[in-house]
Amino acid sequence: MATKYWIGTASEVAQVDTVQITGYDAGTTYILTVGGVTVSTIGTTDANGTATALAAAWNASTHPYFTGVTASAATDTVTLTADVAGVEFIAVSSVTGASGTIGAVTSSTANAGPCDWSTPENWSDGSIPGTSDTVIFADNAVNVCYGLDQSALAINNLFIQQTYTGKIGLARNALVTTADGETTVSTKPESRPSYLSIDADVVEIGKHVGTGSAIGSQRLKIDNTNTGASTTKIFATANTGAETNLPPVRLKYNSTSADIFIRGGSVGIANDQPGETAIVGDLYLNGVNSNVYCGDDCQIQTVVQTNGRSIIQSTTTVTSIDLINGIMSIEGDFTATAINIEDGILYPNHVKSAGAAITTININGGLVDATKTSVLRTWTNVNLSVGSSIKVNSDIVTMTNFNDPSGQYTIQVS
Is the entire prediction scored with pTM above 0.85? Predict the structure, then answer.
């Protein structure tokens, strides 16, 4: 176990990959693919001729996925060389039809540069992080753009302090073309991984102990691939994200034992783009300036909010939701087994296409406003206490069992 600090000081080296035509057939199409876009050639003369034709097809493409890399051919092998040192590319090979074969794309010279996680010189002790290490980002502004697929690496701790102002991950809607990750082609989406995928037991973001004001990073995209227990604590984030209408911290998870504590800042869970998924255990929101936004395909077990603002979505049953204070909106198609409201404002907009959206809701204080959507839904048990308020259209929301307070109280109907 070692402690590694990100320093981002490596020199830039151009990536070189090779791929061999291992079996020639005139009826086979030989294909190279980058980000789902392909170039190809039919088998030509022999393996050597096919390699030459495939390299020519690559160089003839005007798509930005290909124009930043130059192809050449020697005998039966195509060589791909990055035009800009320090800019990673990811190509895969395939064939279709007849009996021809092609080898895998392999690296003869790995990409290297100050923004590549996999470059040893970017780490404080000159070696990349290993199993059970602690990784720290602090007092630094160098981005991490490449080598982001570290999903096979299991570390103990990932600490990203508020004094780190670089970006980790890539924007999904623009193709990076420079080693520092700051120049992009906005007409094409990013073809490489945009999240740092890593297995971490503990993630801490935004802690700052000391004098002065630390502003944080405008883009931290972390996909925690840990399938066991993990803890994430968010103390603070940058005020705004690098991408318009997206929070500066964006996270994904893959475990019902992944617990998240958000004490400040703006955090998105699987909300960077449609179709992202996340499996989360318990979500705690307890800072007055904390905000969390859950994407359409989250799976969450329980939620406790003592302050802040949240948009909660889930594709599976949420066992319990406790709103102590703050503002919460619930969206999606799922059942909330138990909702307890002590104060604040709840907008229960979620439905359940087959069954009750809420099994039991205890309204002990605050306001429950169910008038923000006109979708029909059912609440099985509604328990209303003195000092609480509810706004509901009875033509829209069916309350199977409405239990009013005991003793004297006032009903206001508008």
Answer: yes
